[in-house]
Task: inverse folding
């Protein structure tokens, strides 16, 4: 396997991949905020939630649904700030994965990553983070 990366570049590629994977897992998990409501443990993230209240019209009371799930639509996300956070975090994760996978390919393919490409990739990582 020919590589276009130095030893530091190989370390950067693997650390980039680990950080991108951790960011994506954090984005998809609903454990950003933890608390309790109606004596039940609840948690939610930008577009997922666990144990949320719903109105039961047959019994005329609010009950807790004890399962995890996504919001039904983008507009169902509780606030504009959370919607913006969902979009920005999703784009950041996408950029981080793009750079990380390109860097990992640079470990296997010679002349894929030059000094200029490495600097641009670092800038993209900065924006993605």
Result:
């Amino acid at each position: 396997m020919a590589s276009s990366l130095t030893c530091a570049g190989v370390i950067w590629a693997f650390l980039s991949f680990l950080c991108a994977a951790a960011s994506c897992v954090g984005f998809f998990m609903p454990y950003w905020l933890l608390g309790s409501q109606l004596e039940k443990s609840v948690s939610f993230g930008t577009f997922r939630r666990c144990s949320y209240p719903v109105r039961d019209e047959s019994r005329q009371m609010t009950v807790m649904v004890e399962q995890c799930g996504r919001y039904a639509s983008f507009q169902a996300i509780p606030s504009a700030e959370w919607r913006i956070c969902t979009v920005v975090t999703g784009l950041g994760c996408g950029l981080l994965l793009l750079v990380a996978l390109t860097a990992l390919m640079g470990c296997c393919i010679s002349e894929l990553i030059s000094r200029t490409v490495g600097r641009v990739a670092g800038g993209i990582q900065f924006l993605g983070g």
Q: What stands out?
A: The chain has one domain: 7-128. Residues 39 and 64 are 9 Å apart (CA to CA).
